[in-house]
């Protein structure tokens, strides 16, 4: 396979499939402006300065037929997204127009862009590193505030700077060790390797510690609602959702199967899972519902354990208590018991719901301050874990062997930014992009 050539002119529709007010066709590669010249009626694109737009008409040069009125954006290398000569035709956003424009471009020398190929070119031309390219993808895919914020952090090269600084420190350390090994008598200070390695290892570990929150910020979390029958699980799901999604009745055992409802809690994408009430039962259907509820709780990122405070307190079921938030329901009714470990809520009056949302947000994302760097990409997590292992080994090794481990840690770190990575790694990253990005 191999990576696609940088020399070709590539073209693709950059706007989503379907009808839109405006649609964009993107073209990039040396000769793009000469290609556009053939189908543009208006100011000569090859004579326009970069960073300009102009109004005109897109034509089929063979028949002379006008395809649409459009805006043309001209970018000149290296001042474009890809770093190459590029252009955008912004037409009316009908699929019929966009398809024809693309077809004419293909007939006159462009080829279809592969998924992510514009961003691939930006990366190969050094306009962004691999971690930033991945952040572009995450940003396009962001479906929540938390995901958008998380992706934007990656785009702004914060991670790249951090990894760069750590790598530089390791490089310097390596140079010192080398000098000392090569000329022990020359008076090069035998460096305090451990004293300089430890802060790097600590940084790597604290980056890794952000991974669970980072993952949840970008991909969302599963939150299970569990408790005895009639505890008010379905009512709470509806209250959080803002509409009557789940069936609610006064009959215990109403919810038999589980039910998933996507929602956003404090900007975090959450799939809330309403489950069957947990109790001993001979009913076969209900029994498997109860088994399911317990399994869903085990697999959830966070469990809400609901207990009705207007009824005698039920015995606690087997739950992953470290990941469980206790909720006392029906807070509008006179309480039979009180327990400070339980957050009181009423699905009927809405009391306590906001506090619950905040607590869920806090439990899922922790107290990490706004704007802090979070790792969310699996590839980055894996590379950091390898760096951690090698740095730990370097700390424990004699000086002559420590150098080797530091080199391997450096390699792992540089992979994050896409330095010295195989084509296969690059292909894997860009495979997930959409065409036109
Ligand atoms: N119409 C349109 N909107 C878009 C993009 C695009 O390519 N086209 N983008 C992309 O997907 C994003 C913006 N990112 C971009 C980043 C750099 C350059 C660029 O041409 N940079 C040049 C010139 C900068 C300047 O004029 O100041 C440079 O950095 O040298 C363009 C878009 C989001 N919106
Ligand atoms: N007063 C009051 N009643 C509530 C509240 N939440 C739920 N209820 C009532 O409690 C009963 C059971 O509510 P559900 O939401 O169906 O309880 P559940 O936990 O889903 O029950 P199962 O599906 O049977 O396990 C219904 O009659 C609800 O109206 C509340 O906040 N206040
Ligand atoms: Mg229910």
Automatic annotation (TrEMBL):
Binding residues for (6S)-5-formyl-5,6,7,8-tetrahydrofolate: 26, 88, 127, 437
Among InterPro entries, the record links this protein to: G_TrmE, GTP-bd, GTP-bd_TrmE_N, GTPase_MnmE, MnmE_dom2, MnmE_helical, P-loop_NTPase, Small_GTP-bd
UniProt: GTP binding residues: 230-235, 249-255, 274-277
Where Mg(2+) binds, per the record, is at 234, 255
**Gene Ontology biological process:** tRNA methylation; tRNA wobble uridine modification
List the cofactors. Answer: K(+)
Where does it localize?
Answer: Cytoplasm
Please give the CDD domains that the UniProt record associates with this protein: trmE, TrmE_N
State how the cofactor is bound.
Answer: Binds 1 potassium ion per subunit.
Task: From the Swiss-Prot or TrEMBL record, give the protein name.
Answer: tRNA modification GTPase MnmE
**Which parts of the sequence bind K(+)?**
230, 249, 251, 254
Main location, first listed in the record: cytoplasm
The GO cellular component terms are: cytosol
Oligomer and partners: Homodimer. Heterotetramer of two MnmE and two MnmG subunits.
* Function description: Exhibits a very high intrinsic GTPase hydrolysis rate. Involved in the addition of a carboxymethylaminomethyl (cmnm) group at the wobble position (U34) of certain tRNAs, forming tRNA-cmnm(5)s(2)U34.
Ranked from the top, the taxonomy reads: Bacteria, Thermotogati, Deinococcota, Deinococci, Thermales
- Which top-level group of life is the source organism from? Bacteria
Q: Which GO terms describe its molecular function?
A: GTP binding; GTPase activity; metal ion binding
């Amino acid at each position: 396979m191999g990576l696609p050539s940088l020399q070709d002119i590539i073209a693709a529709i950059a706007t989503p499939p379907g009808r839109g007010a405006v649609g964009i066709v993107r073209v990039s590669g040396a000769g793009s402006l000469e290609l556009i010249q053939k189908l543009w009626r208006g100011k000569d694109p090859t004579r326009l300065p970069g960073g300009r737009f102009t109004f005109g008409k897109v034509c089929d040069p063979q028949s002379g037929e006008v395809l649409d009125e459009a805006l043309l954006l001209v970018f000149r290398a290296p001042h474009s997204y890809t770093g190459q000569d590029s252009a955008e035709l912004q037409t009316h956003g009908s699929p019929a127009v966009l398809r024809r424009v693309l077809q004419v471009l293909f007939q006159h020398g462009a080829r279809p862009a592969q998924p992510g190929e514009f961003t691939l070119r930006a990366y190969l031309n050094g306009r962004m590193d691999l971690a930033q390219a991945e952040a572009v993808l995450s940003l396009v895919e962001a479906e929540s505030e938390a995901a958008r914020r998380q992706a934007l952090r990656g785009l702004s090269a914060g991670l790249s700077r951090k990894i760069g600084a750590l790598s530089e420190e390791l490089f310097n350390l390596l140079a010192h060790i080398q000098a000392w090994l090569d000329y022990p008598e020359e008076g090069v200070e035998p460096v305090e390797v451990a004293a300089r390695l430890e802060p790097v290892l600590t940084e790597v570990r604290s980056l890794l510690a952000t991974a669970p929150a980072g993952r949840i910020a970008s991909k969302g979390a599963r939150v299970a609602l569990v408790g005895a029958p009639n505890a008010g699980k379905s009512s709470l799901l509806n209250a959080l959702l803002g509409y009557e999604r789940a069936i609610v009745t006064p009959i215990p055992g109403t919810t038999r199967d589980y039910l998933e409802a996507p929602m956003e809690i404090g900007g975090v994408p959450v799939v809330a899972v309403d489950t069957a009430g947990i109790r001993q039962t001979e009913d076969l259907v209900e029994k498997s519902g109860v088994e399911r509820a317990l399994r869903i709780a085990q697999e959830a990122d966070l469990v809400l354990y609901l207990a009705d405070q207007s009824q005698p307190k039920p015995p606690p079921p087997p739950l992953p208590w470290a990941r469980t938030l206790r909720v006392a329901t029906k807070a509008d009714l006179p309480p039979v018991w009180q327990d400070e470990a339980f957050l009181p809520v009423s699905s009927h009056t809405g009391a306590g719901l906001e506090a619950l949302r905040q607590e869920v947000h806090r439990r899922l994302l922790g107290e990490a301050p706004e704007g802090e760097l979070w790792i969310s990409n699996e590839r980055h997590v894996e590379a950091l874990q390898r760096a951690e292992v090698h740095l730990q080994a370097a700390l424990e090794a004699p000086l002559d062997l420590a150098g080797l481990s530091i080199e391997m840690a450096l390699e792992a770190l540089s992979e994050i930014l896409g330095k010295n990575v195989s084509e296969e790694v690059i292909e894997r990253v860009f495979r997930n992009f959409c065409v036109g990005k």
